[in-house]
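User: Fold this; tokens only.

Assistant: Input:
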Amino acid sequence: MRKTFHSGQRWMPRTPLTCLLVASAEFFAENKNIAGFDNPGKSLYTTVRELVENGVDSAEGMGCLPWIQVTVEEISKARFNTIMGLDEFERTDEALYHDFETKKQKDKREAKEAVEREKIRILEEKQNVKGAEAAKTTFLKSVSARKRKGTMYYKVTVKDNGSGMPHEHIPDMLGKVLSGTKYSLKQTRGKFGLGAKMALIWSKMSTGLPFTIKSAQEKRKFISSFVLDIDMYKNVPHVHKEEKLPNDKSWRGSEIAVTIEGDWVAYRSRLLSYLRQMAVITPYAQFDFRFVSEDPEKGFSYTFKRRTDTMPEPPKETKYHPSAVDLMVFEQLLSHSKANTLVKFLQNDFLSINKTYAERLIAEMGPDFDPLMHPSELKGRKDMLVRMQQLFKEAKFSLPDGSCLSPVGEYNLRLGIIKELDPDMVSTYRLPQVQVFEGHPFIVEAGVSVGGKTVKPGLNVYRFANRIPLLFEKGGDVVTKVANSINWGNYKITKDDRVGIFVSVVSTRIPYKGAGKEYIGADIKEYASAVKQAIQGCAVQLSKKISRKDAAKAAQERKGKLVKYIPDVSRAVVTMLSNILKDSEQPEKRRRISHLDSEGILEQFEKKELSESILSRKLIQHVQQIDVELALEYAAQTGMASKRKSDIFISPASVLQALGPELHASKCVIQLLH
């Protein structure tokens, strides 16, 4: 039959469809934003973050106190071109470039800069040092950003003291996407094993330069050295150079260097805030940061020192809870199970199922299931797998106990907050029971501080998931929304107070929103309820401290006011004693007064042993003694009896110093050195 085409329709010949397979590396290169590589600035931040967390994981994995050294070296476009072998060239058509200014635009900018300079001059004349410095900093930043023509590049180097990597596995561990050691059911900082690989992909996309890796394992006599990148279309590592260097100093750890496009100016504060929050949540780690600028005056270094050697217990690998299993997990477990019967499969590969309960479950599944059947018989039987999954969703199971998790601990959380914020007071709280969401256990710990350096007035929220800071998309996070919903006035905290709210969540599976691990959704009721309980637990402790502090302060102020009334009181007492002494000249009154004056005050006054000046001095001494006692009580209530600062923890001269145990007392912690 001949097909009739209507007016306006065009006949298009059919072309054969082809199905193209995309390599994992190519996919993530095209969708780099899902891994936190949205733009050059955030890519610089994410590169540092992922390499730092890999280093901390490596050190913790072998029970070693982490020592992470981070260097960000600025590379100008001219120096980058020299590295790439490109000749320097001069612009010939200025209007072709995005930073070109017309005469009108230039005049407008210069007029605005003149106004800013005049503002700074006026503030300096008024001796407003703080305002002048803030205005000058803002002005210099805008000028610096304008002068930075073209793209900026950065060499990021991260060195750790972890376990190192096996020589033969380094290419696959760093040059093959979705290959890693974090795919078992276990609390981990990583989520997809993308971190270092995405930094390598971004390096290849933005600069074309490969990774440089040096790594050495314990008691190895050589250092593995690689220069490699990744073939994104095949998802395989491409090794440019491989060698084994002598390890004369018995070094252990890894050092990774990568050159990428970035924006330090835009993400400087984010990056430093990330390292500071890492120091809060891991006070047992030391972070050395160094920024090397093209301008030597702008370079700086900063050390986030270790506060304690008490590390949390490492997380343990665990089995799936029946309520957390879907069809894909069923198939995965069946393919890896070593059980030879169905009853042993349920008993050995799942939590909360013993032999008796496994037999009851199999009996409930129907006649197609037999306790002695081999688990491999279920492969390919979607109907049987669906029946098992349905029963697992509807049956009752004891909840996981959370023993596989590794929270930071109230002690470490408190130390981290004190070390980095130096607050006036702080409280911490951990929910006594483990929570469960979709079959995965989670633990919530919280800390609330009042006062402290660099803390802005109002609520300052700090979020942590599996012991990593979450800095982006704070507004949609469960912690932010819960904190804003609490009536802080009920806990004697006002909106003008500088309040820090710290919430740490650990779980075998954090329900992040998006692949970038940016935040936890506020729509998850189990998390919202647990976070609220933890924060309120801290707030209750703080309200009691604030009440005691206010009462002690008020009593101290009342006693202090007595001093200014002492002269009047002394004068009045002396006048009264003089009048009584005159009346006592009559014998009858003398006997009555003597009977009442058991302390002999009149006799002392009559002998000139008690005078107005003596009475004033004794009263002042008494009030001063009361002031001292109240001051000590007040200091104890506020936790500032010794005005503690960073001198509680005295770090050793070298991070390589062998450390002994910690002695915990009610007022301090003493660290012994070997």
